[in-house]
């Protein structure tokens, strides 16, 4: 029984190992991801950049290659029928393609950082079309080239940058805040001045009404004076005590005292 079970186990182990070897031998190549902007606008006669990056599970080596191609969107252009190679990079060197782009295309990327961008100088209206970026990093050789639609326009047709829009929005907000602050200060000053004016008018009304009772008092005094005797002023009243005993030194206490009221009429 034991030899039979051991034979079965050995066969299963051999079958599993063979299956793994087949799977490893037939493992498909890894896919490479290539990314680029879907649309780029450039001003005619200026320098523009076409960005392209890639992601790969393999280490970048000298066998890594980059191919840039172009297909014009203008029917009468010689590059309108099919994409034409305008730049090729391999073994750390760049090779210009068609003579139309030979002196205008420059590699500005860093392949070790997985950046394979190019620069177009100067951009022309004939460059309107589709640019293709393709990267091979063996064994990562399967991937879809990235596409970028290039539009070469005059300066007036270029959209405003986000920086200009942000600066304009911030400036407008600050100006609005300043106007609100100025309006608030003016309103507060007007209300303060109005309050002071009302206080002054109330004080003036009170001061104008205060002397009136004094006039009444003065008038009552004048009336009392006018109603009194019109003759000369009355002199002082003198009271005298008379002694009927004839003594020069003293008088009897029990005697009555007579007071005389001498008034000068």
Could you describe the 3D structure shown?
Mean pLDDT is 75; it is low at 21-29 and 249-254. This protein is an alpha+beta fold and 265 residues long. The chain has three helices and eleven strands; from the N terminus they run H-E-E-E-E-E-E-E-E-E-E-E-H-H. A hairpin with a 2-residue loop joins strand 6 and strand 7 (93-96). The protein is elongated.
What is the strand arrangement across the widest sheet? 2-11-10-5-6-7
Order of helices and strands: HEEEEEEEEEEEHH
Mean pLDDT across all amino acids: 75
N- to C-terminal distance: 175 Å
Q: How can the largest sheet be summarized?
A: 6 strands, mixed
Count up the helices: 3
Query: What portion of residues belong to β-strands?
Result: 15-25%
| Structural class designation | alpha+beta
Instruction: Find the count of extended strands (DSSP E, 2+ residues).
Output: 11
- The amount of helix comes to 25-40%
Could you list the spans in which at least 5 consecutive residues all have pLDDT below 50? 21-29, 249-254
- The radius of gyration is 60 Å
Backbone shape: elongated
Q: Could you give a short description of this structure?
A:
The chain is α+β, with helices and mostly antiparallel strands.
How are the SSEs ordered, and which strands pair?
Layout: H1 2-25, E1 33-36, E2 39-43, E3 48-50, E4 52-55, E5 65-72, E6 84-90, E7 93-96, E8 105-107, E9 118-120, E10 129-136, E11 146-153, H2 162-209, H3 212-227
Parallel strand pairs: 2-11
Antiparallel strand pairs: 1-4, 3-9, 5-6, 5-10, 6-7, 8-9, 10-11
């Amino acid at each position: 029984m034991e030899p039979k079970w051991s034979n079965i186990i050995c066969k299963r182990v051999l079958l599993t190992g063979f299956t793994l070897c087949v799977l490893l031998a037939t493992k498909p190549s890894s896919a490479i991801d290539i990314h680029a902007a879907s649309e780029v606008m450039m001003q005619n006669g200026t320098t523009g950049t076409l960005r392209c990056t890639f992601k790969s599970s393999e280490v970048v080596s000298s066998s890594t290659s980059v191919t840039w191609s172009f297909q014009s969107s203008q029917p009468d252009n010689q590059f309108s029928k099919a994409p034409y190679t305008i730049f090729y990079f391999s073994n750390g060197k760049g090779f210009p393609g068609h003579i139309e782009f030979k002196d205008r295309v420059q590699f500005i990327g860093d392949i070790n950082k997985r950046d394979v961008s190019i620069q177009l100088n100067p951009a022309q209206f004939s460059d309107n079309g589709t640019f293709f970026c393709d990267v091979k990093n063996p064994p990562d050789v399967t991937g879809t080239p990235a596409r970028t639609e290039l539009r070469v326009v005059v300066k007036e047709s270029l959209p405003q940058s986000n920086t200009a829009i942000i600066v304009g929005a911030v400036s407008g907000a600050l100006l609005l805040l300043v106007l609100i602050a100025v309006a608030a200060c003016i309103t507060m000053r007007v209300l303060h001045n109005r309050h002071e004016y009302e206080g002054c008018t109330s004080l003036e009304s009170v001061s104008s009404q205060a002397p009136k009772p004094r006039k009444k008092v003065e008038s009552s005094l004048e009336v009392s004076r006018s109603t009194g005797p019109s003759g000369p002023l009355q002199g002082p009243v003198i009271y005298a005590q008379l002694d009927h005993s004839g003594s020069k030194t003293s008088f009897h206490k029990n005697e009555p005292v007579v007071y005389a009221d001498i008034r000068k009429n």
